[in-house]
Amino acid sequence: MAVQIARGILRGNVQLLPEPITTWTDASVDLRLRKDSHIITIASLGKKRMYSESYIKFGFTSINKQGKDLPQCVICQKVLSEGSMKPSLLKRHLSSCHLELSDKDQSYFERKAPVLKSIRFDHTDQLHKQNEASLRASYMVALRVAQNKNPHTIVETFVLPCCKDIIGCFFGENAAQKLNTLPSSNDTVHRRTYDLLEDI
User: Fold this and answer.
1) Separation of CA 104 from chain center
2) Average pLDDT of the segment spanning 155-182
3) What's the burial of 141, exposed, middle or buried (CB within 10 Å: 0-12/13-18/19+)?
4) CB 145 within 8 A of CB 191
5) Three-state secondary structure call for residue 84
6) Fewer Cβ within 10 Å of end Cβ, the chain: N or C?
7) What does the pLDDT look like over 14-40, one tens digit per residue?
């Protein structure tokens, strides 16, 4: 239909309105025609792919972002574009990014999906940066404590108060209060140390 209208405009069979018209905004084909200083955008509606429950076998569930259903990997939490809602592209992500999981059956990914849904997301649909930064910092501190052969209690009693003082002096008390989210108890540092030992 869009092509027929475009041909009609080029031949002069379709009369232009006094003001520019834009139609079919969410389309796959976008034709811009100029005639007598008027621009008409004509587009053919593309086929919109919807999420199918069978995509879980490739390790993908859907997430609604700005009114659009987008595929999201249950392993790495990566959100792909709307154009990636094709079985071949989802399978390619699984085989290229998670090769060791490509032979897993559908039930494995079905067990991972509810965990993904329970993770809190911020307005950009990414993991909360604050929690991610706290977790990373906690592991980094545990590594330093283990390397220097210090007791685990040093983080809670000495390192964290020193860090708060330093950050408070440089960046203000509001920035120093963010360190309260850092897991620093004796048991936490002990667990982090053993996690690091298992990863070696």
Assistant:
1) 23
2) 88
3) buried
4) no
5) helix
6) C
7) 444 444 443 434 444 444 444 444 444
pLDDT value at position 18?
45
**Structure tokens, 165:** 């003082």
Closest C-alpha among 165, 160, 166 to residue 144: 160
Q: Is pLDDT at 150 greater than 50 in this prediction?
A: yes
Contacts 24+ apart (CB under 8 A), 185-192: 185/156, 186/152, 186/153, 186/156, 187/152, 188/138, 188/142, 189/138, 189/141, 189/142, 189/145, 189/152, 189/155, 189/156, 190/152, 192/138, 192/139, 192/141, 192/142, 192/143
Whether residue 169 is predicted with pLDDT greater than 90 in this model: the reply is: yes
pTM for the whole structure = 0.41
